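Worked problem 6 (solution included).
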Amino acid sequence: MLCCSVLTRAQQSQILNDNQGKPVMEQGYIDVEGSPYLNANWFPGIVNLASGKAVTAKIKYDMVKDELLFQSPRDSMALAFVTPVKSFSFGVFGVDETNLVPLIFSNGYPDIDDQTQASFYQVIADGKVSLLKRYKKVIHSDQAFNSATTTKTFAMRDAVYYLLANGKIEKFKPSQKAAISAMNNNADKVQAFIKSSKIDFKSDKDLAKLFIYYNSL
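Solution. The predicted structure is:
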């Protein structure tokens, strides 16, 4: 599983250096209010490169360009990876601001909508049926009535969930009905688990619990 492989390779990872990155040009973000990143701050993370190497670095994910950046250990400059990134993971603080919540992102999935195999998805659950979550930010321009000034802001699109099974990917709108339909070969067990575990379909944590259970059957 992806989750296990990311954690296993943490001990084998290497520290990034400047010659593994290239400076990031951010002219397109001038005068845009807000942040293009999933999290504006740098977080320590583990990055699995397409070359097979695992590295550690302070990273942040640009949701407009769909690009992972790392912080130069020499001068703290933002750098883009020279070698393509296959997956990355890092922890962010949860609602209570005390516990770190691990987030795993990966690419290499079939094309769908406006996403390609290079597009990153958050991996909510991995297995025979994987649950993926796609984030996206866009630059929104707004011009007030009778004003010559245009205001540009980073706007978050609604996240979209996808199911991956048997090499095929499709949209998934989290609900009990949709989950049971996707897991119809074990519908009775899944329905009982949803009831006993009081699964909240608006919670990624609960969705992960449900898919991990199903994948264990």
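Discussion: The first strand starts at residue 14 and ends at 15.
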